[in-house]
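Bug report (template v2)

What were you trying to do?
Predict the complex of my protein with flavin-adenine dinucleotide.

What happened?
Run completed; filing so the output is reviewed.

Input:
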Amino acid sequence: MNSGASTPGGSPANHPDVLVLGGGLGATALVAALRGGGFTGSVTVVCGEDRMPYDRPPLSKELFDRDEPAGLAEQFSLSPGDAAWLTGRRATAITPAAGGFRVSATDAVGDVHSLDAPVVVVATGVRPVVPVEWSGVRTLSTWEDARALRAALAPGTTLAIVGAGWVGLELASAAAAAGVRVTVVDALDRPLGTVTPPGVGARIAGWLAAAGVAFVPGGATAAGAATVTLADGRVLDAAVVVAALGARPATAWLPAGWLTGTGHVLVDGVGAVRGAAGAFAIGDCTAVDGRADQHWNAAVAAAERCAAAILGHVPPPPRPSVVFSTMYGHSVDMVGRADPHADVIWREDTAGGWTALLTRDGALVAGMAVDRPRDVAALRRILARDRPRIDPGLAANAVRPLTVAPA
Ligand SMILES: Cc1cc2nc3c(=O)[nH]c(=O)nc-3n(C[C@H](O)[C@H](O)[C@H](O)COP(=O)(O)OP(=O)(O)OC[C@H]3O[C@@H](n4cnc5c(N)ncnc54)[C@H](O)[C@@H]3O)c2cc1C
């Protein structure tokens, strides 16, 4: 694979047919989908990080198991020459230019490089949210973050994680398994409380308790390198403090007219930016028709639809959102639009697996499957329909396949 870091100004790499900004999952999946669809033009990828694209899910799940990041080029079977990868450069401005767009990209020593292309795809992802006054608090978003955390955590070390979302819970799981003494603080009274109803959160809280992870509800009002101030005024001391509060789009450098109020690039179903012909955006930095979906499968699906649009092919149909996770010895898949206010139908098997079927007004909106891969496949199929109905009595029987209710 061509690192491209030494590509000189004025080289063909600076005048590609397709210019991709952001060297992560969406960018890699886009290059793979373009080449898989027969694209023979030139592609350049401006990669903000100083390394080739890598996969982020293992950063939390395999924190203590990896000496090298999980490269994405291999995972997507890319060949050298599929794209020029300009690592260590950040896009800082984009303007309309004759026949397309001009992008300014800044390298590590501050030199600015200009790139021109008729088609530009923004795939710059997100940055973790940390209140500005929380000085010294760590995050887990990049390989460098993971490496620094691994070095700081040893058996017996105390770790406080603020935020019981997916990343916070996975980090807690990996750290506890490695003998780290972990406390998770969250504003809500249960883990995953922003996406799952109370009964589901209570089960996940049970996993934390069984793993020796302390859960503190009520939230944090302040945090520093070695302290977290809880809502009731108590101060929690920890050798390492991590904020896992979610993430915001890395889009501040884009034209304001492309962005929603939350900073997401507003795009249609194939990633096209309204009012900017030739501009596309995919992945975590986007809101598709106003909805953000910051997950692995969504980024790959968006890349495939975008590539089809660039190639003039019919895009694949939208698929239901699927978030996968592994934590506390369980395989967890959330299919569909998670909803903390949904009603729950439980499907439980005798081996300890369960699926929480989330319904609203009688229609299935999502399902969280724990150690139930067959339910994941069924949920993907069922949730591809519009407002599917299920029979609560039949659906609760985990021995029967999950199906829609007979009409
Ligand atoms: C620790 C962790 C665990 C995760 N686990 C899961 C999981 O289990 N399941 C799941 O579904 N999802 C998971 N995710 C989310 C998943 O990794 C993302 O949804 C996915 O990576 C999104 O792809 P993307 O291309 O939009 O962004 P990214 O893969 O984040 O890539 C964006 C890239 O753009 C670069 N960039 C930013 N600004 C610029 C700029 N101005 N110029 C050039 N480059 C720039 C960034 O440095 C980054 O390398 C996890 C994320 C993290 C951080």
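What did the reviewer find?
Residues 21-27, 46-49, 56-57, 59-60, 90-91, 123-125, 140-141, 167, 250, 253, 283-285, 294-297, 299, 323-325 surround flavin-adenine dinucleotide (CB under 6 Å). The longest helix spans residues 296-311.
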